[in-house]
Write a structure and sequence with these properties.
Blueprint (H helix, E strand, L loop, with lengths): L6 H4 L63 E5 L8 E5 L8 E3 L10 E3 L3 H4 L5 E2 L2 E2 L2 H5 L2 H4 L8 H7 L20 E7 L5 E7 L4 E6 L4 E6 L6 E11 L5 E5 L18 E5 L6 E7 L8 E5 L8 E3 L3 H4 L5 E2 L2 E2 L2 H5 L2 H4 L9 H9 L15 E4 L4 E5 L18
Parallel strand pairs: 7-20
Antiparallel strand pairs: 1-2, 3-4, 5-6, 7-10, 8-9, 8-11, 11-12, 11-13, 13-14, 14-19, 15-16, 15-20, 17-18
Length: 402
């Protein structure tokens, strides 16, 4: 259900919460209020008669063993997670076929959600399909709509779909009590120059040349989400801050306005989110170029993460790229590796990354436990080539930007 590129989907959906002390089974009452028959499905496996289905088909099985084919309106949930909470949402990332309500029935939790617009009848022509309305990612399969390795540009979909249902683009306003800016200390511990970059979906971006041993202190606003920090290598910029980098290039800018081009090792984070917690991790969903440490520096939070393996030199030949090692999604662009919709499993390539960096995200449906939390207001450090990482020599081009 979650990868960090989708953290804005998972942690910013409407969440209804109830406290529990013991983990008990949950009962889901699924009711059909339509005047016609539907075939309910659930994964993990289950269902309610089915020939080859028009929408939501799960390989022709009545008792589903996998996710359904788009388009289908989804009720998604995980039970007994962080702090004993259940997380649930209605998702249209696989499109829409049937209006839906998803609500708790227990006395301790009263907030539910619904998506009841007549989306099928009003579906934009680009997304129309028999019996439903596709999500743009299913149709176009591009980074612009699937957010595999770049910021999402939802302009077309927003204009056409926003008026139909707010759940196509779920953004929840969170209340902060004493939310303060966080300081990120970005240090280059490599023996070569890197050009650090930082971009947030909910804020601006930036970039700075860092010689070996240099640091960059970056103040990040509370509530920032969809944020990334990464290192660019072998860059050359002119006095206007225009140029290019061998890895991690962000449209030829010194001060990045968009995410970097793979391969690049990513420090990703969202600040002051659910329960005023910060969520952060190291991600290899855009590949690997520089070893990295991502750790809190405040006294109240101690757990950090690292990815320090010699991945560039050990990279499988199919994934090799100048200066780095690509994620298989970047190379093959298929459902198997990119998880455009529904379920996908680890592959031999993702296992290669996981074996070397077990605490990093390696594919879009990787283990959510790879994400670490700290209280809001925590400060952090991102270190390129931390102590213990392999000594990787790079021939960095000289630039004139500073």
């Amino acid at each position: 259900m979650m990868s960090f590129r989708n953290i804005s989907m998972y942690y910013f959906v409407c969440v209804a919460v109830h406290g529990i002390t013991l983990a008990n089974a949950a009962t889901f009452s699924i009711q059909n209020n339509f005047p016609y028959t539907v075939w309910a499905a659930a994964a993990p496996g289950g269902s309610g008669q089915l020939d080859h289905g028009q929408t939501g088909d799960c390989v022709g099985l009545l008792q589903c063993q996998g996710y359904g084919l788009p388009p289908n309106t989804l009720a998604e949930y995980t039970l007994n997670q962080f702090d004993g909470m259940d997380f649930f949402d209605i998702s249209l990332v696989d499109g829409f076929n049937v209006p839906m309500e998803f609500s708790p029935t227990s006395g301790g939790c009263n907030r539910g959600i619904n998506c009841t617009s007549q989306i099928v009848g009003q579906c934009p022509s680009e997304f129309q399909t028999p019996g439903g309305c596709n999500n743009p990612c299913t149709v176009f399969k591009t980074d612009e709509y699937c957010c595999n390795s770049a910021p999402c540009n939802t302009k077309l979909a927003k204009m056409k779909l926003e008026s139909l249902s707010p759940f196509f683009f779920p953004f929840v306003a969170l209340c902060f009590t004493v939310a303060t800016a966080a300081t990120f200390t970005i240090r280059n511990n490599c023996s070569y120059t890197v050009w650090a970059a930082a971009v947030a979906a909910s804020a601006g971006g930036g970039g700075k040349r860092l010689e070996s041993g240099a640091t960059w202190n970056l103040n990040v606003k509370p509530g920032t989400r969809g944020a990334r920090i990464w290192a660019r290598t072998n860059c050359q910029f002119d006095e206007a801050g225009r140029g290019r980098c061998k890895t991690g290039d962000c449209g030829g800018r010194l001060k990045c306005k968009a995410y970097g081009k793979p391969p690049n090792t990513l420090a990703e984070f969202a600040l002051n989110q659910y329960k005023n917690l910060d969520f952060f991790h190291i991600s290899l969903v855009d590949g690997f170029n520089v070893p990295m440490e991502f750790s809190p520096t405040s006294a109240l939070c101690k757990k950090g993460i690292q990815c320090t393996a010699d991945i560039v030199r050990q990279c499988p030949k199919e994934l090799k790229a100048p200066g780095g090692c690509n994620n298989p999604c970047t190379v093959f662009k298929t459902q198997q590796y990119c998880c455009y919709y529904g379920k996908c499993d680890p592959t031999d390539f993702s296992k290669f990354f996981k074996a070397r960096c077990p605490n990093a995200y390696t594919y879009p449906r990787d283990d959510p436990s790879s994400t670490v939390t700290c209280p809001g207001g925590t400060n952090y450090k991102v270190v390129f080539c931390p102590i213990g990482s392999p000594h990787l020599e790079m021939v960095a081009s000289m630039s004139q930007e500073e």
